Amino acid sequence: MEKKHTVFNWIFLGFFALFVLLPIVYTITNSFMSVEEINRYYGDMNKEGAVTLFHIFPDRVTLDSYYQMLFRRPDYLVKFWNSLLLTGSIVIGQAVISCTAGYAFSKFRFPGRDGIFFVLIILMMMPYQVTLVSNFIVLDLLNLIGSYPAVILPGIFSPFGVFLMRQVIDGMPNDIIEAAKLDGANQFQILFRIVAPRCRAGLVSLIILSFVDSWNMVEQPLIFLKDRAAYPLSVFLAESNSADPSLGFACGVLAMIPVALLFLFYEQELVEGISLSNLK
Fold first, then answer.
1. Can you tell me the distance from the alpha carbon of 113 to that of 129, in angstroms, rounded to the nearest whole number?
2. How much is the pTM?
3. Residue 209: φ, ψ to 5°
4. What secondary structure letter does DSSP report for 230?
5. Is 163 in contact with 254 (CB distance < 8 Å)?
6. For residues 91, 96, 101 and 104, what is the CA-based torsion angle, rounded to 10 degrees?
7. CA-CA distance, 202 to 160, in Å (whole number)?
């Protein structure tokens, strides 16, 4: 009976794994198709009522889409580097702010601490679109609309990062911090030399989750940036899919690479960090 139950679990989990991995495999295999083959199977997707067939394996493998993306259409590579610039800036800034604020909320006692943290939780539960208008007004008053800081600054001060690091640091014994104080260490030395290294798994989890969220952002660049040449790759994926599906598949694979590498190299830290934060 137990063996049958195990087989059923494997079948059940295998089905959902296939369900999750199918879009990824579909994108990768279609990126090796020629323009003619994609047009033949998918038709004109821009026309209303056009019939789109499901075709996963290419009739003839070709690297033409990648050649177009890398050499003939370098604007997509520029968007890729734009994405890396925006995402890297947000991740670094959010890691510093979240560690500092998380340490303060966890180990300091100050008036209104619990109330402020409760407000952060409320903000974390709200979708980004709720605060989009207020962010635009503030950034416009600061004369930042149309520049990269308009996209970077709201991402740096994300409430989720503060919440995550506060939960992780909260599980750290106070005795270690007290011992460091007796040795003459100041608060910054305690944070960056003692607390941060011991909370490495939580910090790595924050970096990965922040990277994925920033890498896939669409609304923020569309609203806060005016120059289309400054858009990240995520904004152009939808346009490339409708204008040139073959190039869209190749750009989709390009967009997967950084996220996939982060997950492959830091999977253990991601799981451990989420476990330390007591997130469900």
1. 27
2. 0.83
3. -65, -40
4. G
5. no
6. 150
7. 12
